[in-house]
Amino acid sequence: MQLQIVISRLSNLSFFIQKIHQKKYNAGEFNLQEYLSDRETGFLFYGKDEDEIWNKINKNKSKKDLRQVKESIVDFEASFSIYWNTKSKNLLSWKKYFQNNQKVFWEIINSIQKITNVKDFPFSETSIYLVSDPTSNAECINAWVSCTPTENFVVVEIPSTLKTPSDLFPIGVLSHEFFHAILRRNKKLMIQIREIAENNTKLFKAIPERHLSAKMILEELLISSFLPEGYFREKHLDMKISNYDLIAINDFIEWRRAIAANSRSIAKEYVENGLQIDEKYLMTILSFIKKNTS
Q1: By mean pLDDT, which of 13-17, 22-26, 27-31, 217-221 is the weakest?
Q2: Per-residue DSSP letter, 6
Q3: What is residue 26's predicted lDDT score, i.e. its pLDDT?
Q4: Which among 129, 132, 230, 214 has a CA at the least distance from the CA of 179?
Q5: Cα Rg for the chain, rounded, in angstroms?
Q6: What is the residue-averaged pLDDT of the chain?
Q7: Where are the domains of the chain?
Q8: How many CA atoms lie within 13 Å of 153's alpha carbon, on the beta-carbon side?
Q9: What single DSSP character describes residue 188?
């Protein structure tokens, strides 16, 4: 099966407008940047082609909104065209990178489906949108997933100057987002995650991640125990699991790394014995948090 990778000019234009600070708006004037920064509105700008995107916007927004968006986009076309003419080539290189490493990706997906006990997932209907980030100097890609009853898709944000690496870490980042989408199809497991999080809200507040709920923090740490920091990093990406220093666990990234390192043995045990993630596995993560926040 081929990865459904999409490079959409309109999706990139929308992302570009959200990121740059070019236009000042007068009071009462339609603010396109603010409009696109709304999460639900921004999601509408991801589609396989421009017609699909405009149709989604037309179905979900008023005719006035549609007219104002189209009129306001013109103000950014000139600067974006210059940017797009040079940076779109880098997205093509990244598309080729993901395509060339599909074998590893599907091996990881197979492992994820076994550990989550989810056999069916609409991979052929799940698009991967590549967007170029004009403001980031990060040394790695960023990715996120949108899961709704009608549509799943993954967005990969690529710093405009970031070249494809020789290692497989970005495959782990992409797989991490698919892990979220696959995991959410196991309703029983998601209920367990929610209940554990709700019963330990104060505990999760000790973890420095103010933008995520307790449930989302637990879900993130669970997935990180496998990817891209955990056991699947070693098994599929041929990369070592990073050590952690208890004193240095002062941000969410360090928490993810620490959970991954601490969970290696139990993750390996579950994978090698064909076990599925269960309450016992989740409680191992919880116990580590309790031990290091008390």
Answers
A1: 22-26
A2: E
A3: 65
A4: 230
A5: 20
A6: 94
A7: 5-159, 186-291
A8: 18
A9: H
Establish whether the linkage from the previous residue to 159 is cis, with ω within 30° of 0.
Answer: no
> Which parts of the chain fold into alpha helices (H)?
9-19, 32-37, 39-43, 50-60, 63-100, 102-116, 169-183, 187-198, 201-204, 214-224, 231-236, 252-262, 264-272, 279-291
33-72 tens-digit pLDDT = 889 989 999 999 999 999 999 999 999 999 999 999 999 9
CA–CA separation, 261 vs 267, rounded Å? Answer: 10
Calculate what percentage of the chain has a pLDDT beyond 90: 86
104 close to 168: Cβ distance less than 8 angstroms: yes
